[in-house]
Design goal:
Helix content: over 70%
Distance between the termini: 29 Å
Radius of gyration: 20 Å
Number of domains: 1
Strand content: under 5%
Number of strands: 4
Order of helices and strands: HHHHHHEEEHHHHHEHHHHH
Largest sheet: 2 strands, antiparallel
Number of helices: 16
Structural class: mainly alpha
Length: 326
């Protein structure tokens, strides 16, 4: 697909977001939509890592929660203005993730997942026990200023405005990821993912590109963390817990990691599923688990893969079927 067409689709998505904001009558529903979009950004970060590196992270909540805590500490101690702090936090997360990635991306398969889990839980325990700095298990309030980027906080926190902000951020981040993956960097990381030994043989340094993908996915997740901290004005150690990483990973599996928009679809479906099954709150995870098993069995590449197959012309599907039969 040409990038000009992708830009057109992004513009249509932006228009759709404006329509949702103005046509949704309930503030609580808009708040739910905003939360779903924030987790869609989170899932996008996890999905990028799985798509480009072929690695599964159980510790990406580290970057989600760290973004909120970093914003809270910087604004509490008044080190920078909020606008500068956002960019400093995201840059810091990128550098930290790159340095961690240089070490852990050398480890294959499930061992990589266990390493990310261990690092994430270390951060969770550190936040829980650092009462003086993070408020410990009670969490900490984030003192956002009365004005951010020239807009009053009372305006920013209106449900429709906040939804439009996180929706726009999602579109911009997705476009940035798509553009980056269409460059030579994307081709190199795909080559390394598919056959690392062959990539080394043709002269590609494999560790740095893999670490850069890890850093990129961490920054995307950090964006979600900043948006979440703006939405709630609060951060607690629960944001760093491995279960948050697990939820994001479920979203990626449901939506499909082979497509960039798959994790986004998975996050939206997850939250809608949760809301629709509100009357069965005790059992909704079991019902969702059954749906997850169905997706894995009947559409291993997720909702995005199923939609892609449905949108293919009939003759294309017929040709593919006839070729597979020979």
């Amino acid at each position: 697909m040409r990038f000009s067409r992708i830009l057109m689709l992004a513009l249509l998505a932006l228009v759709a977001g404006v329509a949702i904001a103005f046509l949704t009558p309930s503030s609580s529903l808009l708040g739910l939509f905003a939360q779903a979009v924030i987790y869609a950004i989170f899932a996008l970060g996890v999905g990028v890592l799985l798509r480009q590196n072929g690695l599964t992270s159980f510790g990406h909540a580290l970057f989600f929660g760290a973004a909120g805590y970093a914003m809270g500490v910087i604004l509490t101690l008044d080190w920078f203005s909020a606008e500068i702090a956002i960019f400093v936090v995201l840059l810091g997360i990128g550098v930290l993730a790159f340095l961690i990635g240089l070490v852990i991306v050398r480890v294959p398969g499930i061992a990589f997942g266990m390493l990310t889990l261990a690092i994430g839980q270390m951060a969770y325990l550190l936040a829980t026990r650092s009462r003086g700095l993070t408020g410990g298990a009670d969490g900490m309030s984030i003192p956002w200023p009365s004005t951010l980027f020239g807009v009053k906080q009372s305006v920013l926190l209106k449900p429709d405005v906040l939804f439009l902000i996180v929706w726009t951020v999602l579109i911009v981040v997705t476009l940035a990821v798509v553009w980056l993956l269409r460059t030579r960097f994307g081709s190199i990381t795909e080559a390394v993912r598919d056959n690392e030994e062959r990539a080394r043989f043709i002269g590609i340094t494999t560790t740095v590109p893999r670490a850069l993908v890890y850093a990129m996915s961490a920054v995307v997740t950090g964006v979600a963390g900043v948006m979440s901290s703006l939405n709630t004005g609060f951060i607690s150690p629960e944001s760093l817990h491995w279960s948050v990483s697990g939820i994001a990973l479920v979203m990626v599996v449901v939506g499909g990691f082979k497509s960039v928009i798959g994790p986004i679809l998975g996050a939206i479906v997850y939250f809608l599923f949760k809301e629709l099954l509100g009357d069965f709150a005790t059992y909704w995870m079991a019902i969702f688990g059954a749906a997850l098993i169905a997706v894995i069995v009947f559409s291993p590449d997720g909702i995005a893969g199923a939609l892609e197959r449905l949108m293919k012309p009939r003759h294309t599907r017929a040709n593919a079927t006839s070729k597979s039969g020979h």
